[in-house]
Prior knowledge:
The structure is a homooctamer of 164-residue chains. Chain A is an alpha/beta fold.
Amino acid sequence: MKVLITMGSDSDLPVMGQAAEVLKELSVPCDMRVVSAHRTPELLFEVGRTAHEQGYRVIVAGAGGAAHLPGMLASLSPLPVIGVPVKSRNSIDGWDSLLSIVQMPAGVPVATVAVDGARNAGILAAQMLATSDDALRERIISFKEALRDAVAEKAKRLAEATEH
Amino acid sequence: MKVLITMGSDSDLPVMGQAAEVLKELSVPCDMRVVSAHRTPELLFEVGRTAHEQGYRVIVAGAGGAAHLPGMLASLSPLPVIGVPVKSRNSIDGWDSLLSIVQMPAGVPVATVAVDGARNAGILAAQMLATSDDALRERIISFKEALRDAVAEKAKRLAEATEH
Amino acid sequence: MKVLITMGSDSDLPVMGQAAEVLKELSVPCDMRVVSAHRTPELLFEVGRTAHEQGYRVIVAGAGGAAHLPGMLASLSPLPVIGVPVKSRNSIDGWDSLLSIVQMPAGVPVATVAVDGARNAGILAAQMLATSDDALRERIISFKEALRDAVAEKAKRLAEATEH
Amino acid sequence: MKVLITMGSDSDLPVMGQAAEVLKELSVPCDMRVVSAHRTPELLFEVGRTAHEQGYRVIVAGAGGAAHLPGMLASLSPLPVIGVPVKSRNSIDGWDSLLSIVQMPAGVPVATVAVDGARNAGILAAQMLATSDDALRERIISFKEALRDAVAEKAKRLAEATEH
Amino acid sequence: MKVLITMGSDSDLPVMGQAAEVLKELSVPCDMRVVSAHRTPELLFEVGRTAHEQGYRVIVAGAGGAAHLPGMLASLSPLPVIGVPVKSRNSIDGWDSLLSIVQMPAGVPVATVAVDGARNAGILAAQMLATSDDALRERIISFKEALRDAVAEKAKRLAEATEH
Amino acid sequence: MKVLITMGSDSDLPVMGQAAEVLKELSVPCDMRVVSAHRTPELLFEVGRTAHEQGYRVIVAGAGGAAHLPGMLASLSPLPVIGVPVKSRNSIDGWDSLLSIVQMPAGVPVATVAVDGARNAGILAAQMLATSDDALRERIISFKEALRDAVAEKAKRLAEATEH
Amino acid sequence: MKVLITMGSDSDLPVMGQAAEVLKELSVPCDMRVVSAHRTPELLFEVGRTAHEQGYRVIVAGAGGAAHLPGMLASLSPLPVIGVPVKSRNSIDGWDSLLSIVQMPAGVPVATVAVDGARNAGILAAQMLATSDDALRERIISFKEALRDAVAEKAKRLAEATEH
Amino acid sequence: MKVLITMGSDSDLPVMGQAAEVLKELSVPCDMRVVSAHRTPELLFEVGRTAHEQGYRVIVAGAGGAAHLPGMLASLSPLPVIGVPVKSRNSIDGWDSLLSIVQMPAGVPVATVAVDGARNAGILAAQMLATSDDALRERIISFKEALRDAVAEKAKRLAEATEH
């Protein structure tokens, strides 16, 4: 029941590492790998075709510009693939990354999150695994409650600061 | 282990019905409901907060324009939510629907598919459930093989037609 | 006859505080609250449903990215809601914030101002209240005259500087 | 307590007439006028400067392309101005109309609704007047309940149709 | 035979001053004025209606965001109006300024140049006056030759630097 | 004192013919020519370099897609060049035509009008010639008055139709 | 010295067939194949890795939406790959197809032509082969002359029609 | 068998120099020249018409804003032209450069690479020449293998760093 986090380049690590972080917070095991659709196509094929045989249940894939990694993994693997559009140095403000990932043809979905939204990709991967893991779903519920409480705390502080 | 398909308006049915169709092809049970984030907020709340207690494991939500249904369900429910941007009559070519759904803030992901990509939303829902259901994963593998064979068949016919 | 200013996150305060400032200049009372559509949905509901019972007559709501706060408040409250698209760190240059707020479906309007246009949101809130408050309308007329005079002063200085 | 509905051209009438319709449903009196910022600038000035002296309390203004009517009326009048971007024949899919109306500079707000969203402009005008008119606010609350009931009815019919 | 350079705010001066500079290089007299369509509408009207009676033959107008100054001057004056979209602090990357200026309705043209293209606005103004001034046309021809020679010089230096 | 109207393809004639029409209404002589920047570069050069020697005082140029005709004529000729972005069959909604024409580098302006705005290009050409032709300026003033009267007439009819 | 034309789906044939047509006009042999990056990834790999061993010297690849075929072929093959963004039914006006193809990362170019520009892809393929084939370059020169003559002919007819 | 690298301005050199670098790595001779479509049209014509007679077999052309250099060279020369959209200071985030280069009309292709993608332009030029040069194709194959190995090395280091 592991998650595989892949990225097109190690320059995507500052963004994609956030997926690993949140999975750790939720106690979901994951591995990280650099796989470039365009520079290591053989590796792409091998990873795409064998991930589900190696204990992975969800793939997270981040890439920038003409981002083909998530879509090609979705083509090769029966696992659900979560795509993270990365606003890399060469991207046109993230538009190319987003459209290259989300606009997949019928038959081959990629579950796309926001530009640079790797943290959400990790949460989504956990939610997918939680479809059959009640304890994990409870941890997700607690996680959402903690989000709510953090905002409530900030809200309270703002209210106090602006009150007279 | 059911999927809940929701849509903001019954005018979204021609698009969103494709999610139900593909789930039927994959033998995954689902229900369909009209829930408008903007016109029936109470219903939205009730559905969002209780879906996971009623046997649903994945939510699919389609909406157009300033599309808030998928994001609000993701806010309320611990279940994974798949968002379908619908290119409705009032949408600016689908850009508003897409951005309103995919650009969710950290902590609350929506698994976004292509504009009008409801069929892919259904497949993705099945893939999520298949993370713990080997038989379903096998059906998904067969489904992908059928896709491949259909293209191969067309490819062959084109090759024959253009060959001399 | 108070205005309620809400924002999705306290990181929106530098922008949204400008609405409070201009309301103060116009002697219109207001309160500020952090309410996150995605992280504190229960609070959203409570605020949306009760604001008009607590003496508020206009709601100003700012949010970034897939910005659902203004639209959901407009769904829940009978009060006029003014939406401020915030160009937050995660926004695609403000396009997502703008479209998520302005493209509301028929029946549920949000009065949208420019990206980061919180000052204008405050002025607009005052104009709404002035529909039944002649003294406030007089203050708005004076406010506009001051704007005009400030530009006229700059125009004069430029004319003098470039004249020969 | 009347609403003034203006439009840049009589070709905008099919869209802008929807503002008048919904105001009639809500029993709010209104007048309609063609005023072109670019072709009848004198009329624009006269209307902008005198509307508040003629019993109007809100201005609704619709225009397409480089749409200057709402912003110029907001410049001239102390009244709140609601802008409707019209997707006219010469518009680039409504983008020019939307940006020309919503991106007003600090000091001169226009309350912008969705592209072709004249019906929402009418509702918003009524909400503005309701800030001091409890009976009108009650009618708006009923109006929203009717919206909710219409969706609930459709939701029910869909549920029955897809149930087994 | 003077050119009138107008701008919506003195913050546009660093850009708009470039129009004055190039007109000086071409020995075409010009005046500069701050005129805000939204904050000084009376001044706008006066300038628009009287410019042609005060010896001006071309108007250059720069503005940012929802930029109405060029279009309103074109509405009021029989003179040709050159519009400069300014990428101001509040502009969405210049898109709003550009579309608000260029997409004018039939009957009221604005001669639009590139975003922040004030230097070109000055050249264009000179070209318009040169339609009846052979000496000025000769200066424009020399000006273009100087441009060509400057590039040719750079080209030569690059050729020498990269040659072996 | 003639105007030269050029277009990249005879398929642009329905749009570009409107420039000729309005020039005829204003009694300004003009000629029309098909000149393709990409298919007839020699003709482009000849026309660009000699137009001002053949009695032309303004060039109007329309083209679609990657529209290089206006910019190249502006490069070659000392005359003012008015560019009309044409929304041709291969254009991406006119965006490519517009940006290819308006975003000219410093030194080489093109006076750009709205997408498909050939009628405005004709008016603008007349305004340029009127910088030294008082009788033509009077005709332009009358032309604008006729526009105003036509709108006033429509406004009156709408007022009568909606009055009670 | 053959060209391989590939497309993601047989629905792309009306567009992509134009590449074959123009190659035929230029007497350059070509084959056409349907290869889907997402539905037949094995075929993609085989074609990409072996095309240069089967006598092909240039690959033309057309695809729509999140178009990965051209980029993946460029990843796998040492041959130059020409990408044709196809404005398919599911594309957002061609933007997704264009950006998915053109924005390739450093090291793996795709020679991108206009949206639906398959005819140009064919010409470009011929130009690439002509780098070492003088006879073919001569045919390309004649081809361009024919283009020029066709435009000249139309230009002449327009001149005659509008002359007096 | 040389490549000619051209650019609209010497300010494009930091980007365009990357094309020369990669050609050097691949042992393909090239020359660099500044040629401005808009400022040195005569030079443009001369270069475009004679490049193929001077031993050049491919042209690379980079330009920003309304970028006409690649398209005009493609119009004038029978050689394949590779266009590099440069995100210059005056460009609207590269959109204008990209669309001005890629959206060429039927008959006159430009092989467009990514915004600022000059390195890829160099690789593509080499690939074109390799259509008839087996030794160069071998060098390209080695080049791609080196790319793959570099990514594999990074992938390995990341795997080691994140392994436990």
